[in-house]
C-alpha cells in the first residue's frame, strides 16, 4: 500500500489517496471520525484545532456501499478556516496578505524559502504545517481497519512531557498481549494521554505554565503494537527493512527529532548478554511459532523483520516552533535582525502527535502486511495469512 496527501494549512481542503487496499473491506467511517477527534484533543491544543476545525472526513472514491472496491481510495477534509483566508491562499488568481518575512527558528520557513526561492515564506510554511497530519490520521484509520481483521492492535501513550516522566504503564520489554484494552481506557481518559494520573496532573500544570510564559513544550510518546506475525519486512535489502521504514514514518511527523525501538538508546550502555532476548521453546500449543522470548528488548524487530513479539516504538517531539513571544530572527527583505513571526499555534501537541504516530505506524505495517500476503480481495489475504500461520508452526 502507498499513500499521498495534498493541501495547505489554510487552503480549501486536505486531500489523501490510499492505493493498494484489497476489495471487500467494510469501512467504518465513524471510527475514522473518532481517530480524527482524538487528534484534535489533548491539553495544550490551540483554538483553531479545538474550536474551528471539525475535521469531518469524506470518502470520495474507492468505496461503494461502505465496502472497498480495490481501486484507490480518495479522502477529503475541508478546512473550515478557509473562509477567513480566501484572499490570502486563493489557488487561482491573485493571492495577497499575511505575508511572512521573519522566519521562525525550528520551522521550515527559511529552509523552504531558500530551497524554492520564495520571497514570501508563507509559501513554505503552509505545506510544512502539522495540519497535514489530519489527513494522515484519516488514511491511517483505513490501514488500522485493515489490520484489525488480522488481530493487530495499535496504541500510543505519552511517557514524558516537558521533562516530566510517567511511570512505566506496562512491562514493554516483556509480555504485552492482553493489556492494551486496559491501558487504552486509562490513556484516553487523560487530557495528556498518559496512564500515570499523578504525572498527568503535573504535565497539565507544566503546559499551563508554558502557555502563560508564551512558550512551548515537547516530549516522548510510545507506540505499542500486538498481534503481528513474524516475517514482516525483510533483511535482504536496506529499503525493505521494517525498522527503517517505521523510523522514517515516525520521523516524517512534524517536530519529531528522534526514534527508538525496544530498549533503543539504552541498549548502547549495556552488555550484549543483558540486551539480546533469549530464545526459548514455546510454552503451549497456542503460540504462533515453536519459539518464544524471555524478554522483548529488541522491541519486536530483529534484522529489519518482525519476530512475533510486541512492537515497541518511541518518538521524541521537540517543542513547537511557534512561540508566542517570538525568537531572534532576520527580516529576509532587509537582512536586519528582527523577532520571528507568530502564527496561531499550540502550546503542546504531544498527545495529538501520539495519535499521528499510531496512523503512520498503521500505514507502514499495512504496507508490509500487503507486501507479505498480497491479495486482490480480503478473502485472498485471509487465506494467505492462514496458510502462513500453518507453516510457522512447522518451522
Largest beta sheet: what is the strand line-up?
8-7-9-15-10
The counted number of beta strands is 17
Q: Overall mean pLDDT score? A: 93
Given the C-alpha coordinates, what overall shape results?
globular
Keywords:
395 residues, globular
Description:
This protein is α+β, with helices and mostly antiparallel strands. It is 33% helix and 19% strand. The protein has helices at residues 29-40, 47-52, 86-89, 109-116, 122-128, 133-148, 180-188, 197-213, 242-251, 272-275, 350-373, 378-392, and strands spanning 2-6, 13-19, 57-61, 63-64, 67-68, 73-78, 153-161, 164-165, 219-226, 256-261, 279-281, 291-293, 301-302, 305-306, 311-317, 328-330, 337-339. The strands form six sheets. Strands 8-7-9-15-10 form a five-stranded antiparallel β-sheet. A four-stranded antiparallel β-sheet has the order 1-2-6-3, covered by helices on one side. The chain has a two-stranded antiparallel ribbon with strand order 4-5. Helix 1 (29-40) runs antiparallel to helix 11 and helix 4 (109-116) crosses helix 5. It is globular. The model has no long low-confidence stretch (mean pLDDT 93).
List the SSEs and their pairings:
Elements: E1 2-6, E2 13-19, H1 29-40, H2 47-52, E3 57-61, E4 63-64, E5 67-68, E6 73-78, H3 86-89, H4 109-116, H5 122-128, H6 133-148, E7 153-161, E8 164-165, H7 180-188, H8 197-213, E9 219-226, H9 242-251, E10 256-261, H10 272-275, E11 279-281, E12 291-293, E13 301-302, E14 305-306, E15 311-317, E16 328-330, E17 337-339, H11 350-373, H12 378-392
Antiparallel strand pairs: 1-2, 2-6, 3-6, 4-5, 7-8, 7-9, 9-15, 10-15, 11-12, 13-14, 16-17
